[in-house]
Amino acid sequence: MNSPETPTPPLATSTTKPLPGPSGKEVPVDVFHIDDIPGAMDKMGWKVSAQLMRRWFSNAPAYIMPGEVRDGLDAKKDAIDYRLLPPSQIDDQSVTWEWLLKFPRIQQVLNELYQTWNSPAGVDLLKRRLTKAVWKKGGFVQLGHGLTKAVDLDLTCQVNYREFGHLTDTFDDLFGAIFKATLKVAVIGTAYYDPERDLDIFEVKRMGFYIRDTYDFNAKWYDDEMMGLGVWSKDRVLSKAETADFRATFTVHGHILRYFLYKGFVPVKNSDFRRWQGKHNTGGDFYVFSDVYWVVPNVKEILLP
C-alpha cells in the first residue's frame, strides 16, 4: 500500500495522492484549492466570511498591504484618510450591525466601551479632535455634525476604542470574517463656553460605534501554528476538537489514519494566500469598516479643563 503524500502544487493549498483501488489503479481525488474556501463557508452558513474572502480573491492586481498601512499610517506616518483610497482597498458594506449584534462577544465589548469611553484617555483624544477642528478654550465649535459613515468619523471625532478577538473564540461566521479587530466610538456634539459655570463644555449629542479591520494574510504568527487558518475541505472547516485530533495524527501511522478519518481536509496558512497572489497576480488586501451603530449617549456633557 502506498503512503499518501501531501505535495504543494502552485495552484492549490494541498492535495493527496490517492490509495490504489481494488484493480491496483489509483483512484482520482479532487484537488483542494484555497479559492474553494468561500464555497465551504457558504455551506456552513458563514455568509459574511464568504463574501469578504471572495472580495479578496476578486481584487486585481494583487496587493499586499504594508505593515504601516495595516496600522492605519501613510508613508509620512500620519493617519490614513480612508476616503482617498481606491475602491478596491476598502469595504464598508459587508459588515453590518444587524449581523454583528447576533454575537454575544460583540455585545459584551460594545457595552464595555459604552460605559468607559469617556476615560481620561478618551477625553484627551476628544480635546485633540476639537483642537484640530480649530477649537480653543472659551470658543465654540461643532464636531462631526452631518457625518454618518465610519470612514468620515474615524479621522474627525473618534475618541476611544477596544480591541477584541481571541484564538479561544467560537468557530463561527464572526471568527471567519473578522477574528481580531477594533471597535471604535465617535461622538458628535458641540464645544462651547458656559459663562454661568465659567467652564468649557462639550455637549454630547450622538454616539456612534463601528468596527475597523484589515482583511489580509500578513500575520506571520499564524504560520507558526501547524494548523494556521484552520483545516479545510470543500465542505467545511474542522472544529477545534477535530483540529486537535487532526494535529495528533502527524505520525507515520497517523498519516494513514488521517487519510481515512479526514479525507479531503488540508491545513490552510497565510503563506498559501501569498503564494496564490504570486501565481495569479490577484488577491488584494483591504480595509473593512462596518456601518455605524448610533446610540443614546450615556453622558450629556464632558468638561474640558
How is the secondary structure organized here?
Layout: H1 37-44, H2 47-58, H3 67-70, E1 90-91, H4 97-100, H5 104-116, H6 120-132, E2 141-143, H7 150-153, E3 158-164, H8 173-177, E4 181-194, E5 199-215, H9 220-224, E6 231-232, H10 240-248, H11 252-261, E7 266-267, H12 270-280, E8 286-289, E9 293-295, E10 301-303
SSE arrangement, N to C:
HHHEHHHEHEHEEHEHHEHEEE
Radius of gyration: 24 Å
Shape: elongated
Helix content: 25-40%
Question: Which regions contain 5 or more consecutive residues with pLDDT less than 50?
Answer: 1-28
What report would you give on this structure?
- The strands form 2 sheets. Strands 1, 2, 3, 4, 5, 8, 9 and 10 form an 8-stranded mixed beta sheet that branches. A two-stranded antiparallel sheet has the order 6-7.
- It is α+β, with helices and mostly antiparallel strands and 305 residues long.
- It is built from 12 helices and 10 strands.
- The protein has a domain at 86-219 and 287-303.
- Helix 1 packs antiparallel against helix 2 (47-58).
- The protein has helices at 37-44, 47-58, 67-70, 97-100, 104-116, 120-132, 150-153, 173-177, 220-224, 240-248, 252-261, 270-280; strands spanning 90-91, 141-143, 158-164, 181-194, 199-215, 231-232, 266-267, 286-289, 293-295, 301-303.
- A hairpin with a 4-residue loop joins strand 4 and strand 5 (199-215).
- The termini are far apart.
- The chain is elongated and about 80 Å long.
